[in-house]
Amino acid sequence: MCRACAQDHRAALSCRERIGDYLARLPLLSHLAPEEVEELTAASCPRELCDGQWLFAEGEPADRFFLVRAGQIVLFRQSADGRECIVAVVGQDELLGEEQIFDEHPVRSLNARAVGPTALLSISRNSLRRLVDQSPTVRHAFLQTIDRRQRLLLDHIERLTLQNAQGRLVAYLLGEAKLSPDGRRVRLRIPKHALASHLAIQPETLSRVMSRLKASGKIREERGSMLLDTARLREDLEPAENLGPSWGCPGPPPGDDTLRRPGR
Length: 264
Prior knowledge:
By secondary structure, this protein is an alpha+beta fold. It has two domains: about 5-135, Jelly Rolls; about 155-240, Orthogonal Bundle (Arc Repressor Mutant, subunit A). It has eight helices and nine strands. The strands form two sheets. Strands 1, 2, 3, 4, 5 and 6 form a six-stranded antiparallel β-sheet that branches. A hairpin with a 5-residue loop joins strand 3 (about 65-80) and strand 4 (about 85-90). The longest helix is centred in the middle third of the chain and has 27 residues, at about 135-160. The N and C termini lie far apart (about 75 Å). The relative contact order is 0.13.
């Protein structure tokens, strides 16, 4: 073997080892046997996207799953006139498309696009489905993940249906704060125009609400992030409205700021 070929071979082995180590650390796949990790590693390949680059489009065959290793992917629907509704933001170590693992002829139900430089791991659907069929533990982990996503969808429907613009934003920020180590600091994962779409409000309405919360001292900007006064923000919400991190679905038309609970 020539020196260049030997170097390429060593690089390929090193890449496979890194992919295998990464897969074995993920909670969703942590119960796999070493030979199962090796099988999944062989069926995986790295992929990188630039900011704004599409990963897939609605209606395409869903023949591969994607793990987000770094960066973020937005899932969205697009209307005939080009308007977008952000359905979800998928971040580091999260899987794209697990709800379609049991479909016999799956197709993409959403569009997917990178937010910032994004590194992914593309995994063959057939290989992953084979492991799910063979391992009750992996199948249970997938079902738990799908159930969690469904509950978050219902939470987001409630958020969009029963709250006004400020309530939607406050619930979203409190949910995001739960993901931070101190439970108070939030760094927006998507641009503000995308967040407005996700919350089904106009961008200018989002700006006004954000300014109002800052003026009241409930939100303070600090080193590129927002520090929340979570106790005061929770006072703005009823218990049923204090929802978790958002993995949502389409809501009222953009700009709708009129929906409130009856009697409010």
